[in-house]
Design a protein that fits this description.
76% of the residues lie in helices and 0% in strands. It is built from five helices and no strands.
């Protein structure tokens, strides 16, 4: 759903509906992440990343819901929601590669997948921001 929101035109009923569905899906995903303890047997780094994911999600939706009260709300909404999607993709690539590559090097694969994904995401977020966001006051 994150990709759909990114590539489709912003604003309007479709954007709102798919955005709310994305937020609901991510909240459920992150809550279920707190139930997984197989990897470390206790609170681990992926639980911390779930907290960061929830923070970016809430920090992205709050300005849109409170747009009359938040200065430059579109700026905050755009950046936090896009970073939420980038985090989701980073987790996807890290999970996919650690399960499919025959390396057996868990942490290096996670770090490389995350680094490449966030680097590419950062480039596109900054590039699109120049076209989508109004100039700062």
């Amino acid at each position: 759903m994150g990709a759909i929101v990114i590539v489709k035109p912003k604003r309007g009923l479709f954007h709102k509906r798919i955005g709310y569905a994305y937020v609901a899906s991510m909240v459920v995903l992150n809550i279920t992440a707190f139930q997984i303890y197989n990897l470390f047997g206790r609170f681990g780094p992926f639980h911390a990343l779930a907290i960061i994911s929830l923070f970016s999600l809430m920090a992205g939706i709050a300005p849109a819901l409170l747009r009359q009260r938040v200065k430059n709300w579109m700026h905050w909404h755009y950046y936090f929601m896009n970073w939420s999607v980038v985090g989701l993709y980073a987790a996807f690539w890290a999970e996919l590669l650690t399960r499919t590559l025959p390396m057996g090097q868990f942490w290096p694969v996670v770090m490389i997948a995350t680094g490449i994904t966030t680097g590419i995401g950062s480039y596109f977020i900054r590039k699109q921001a120049t076209y989508l966001l109004p100039p700062a006051n």
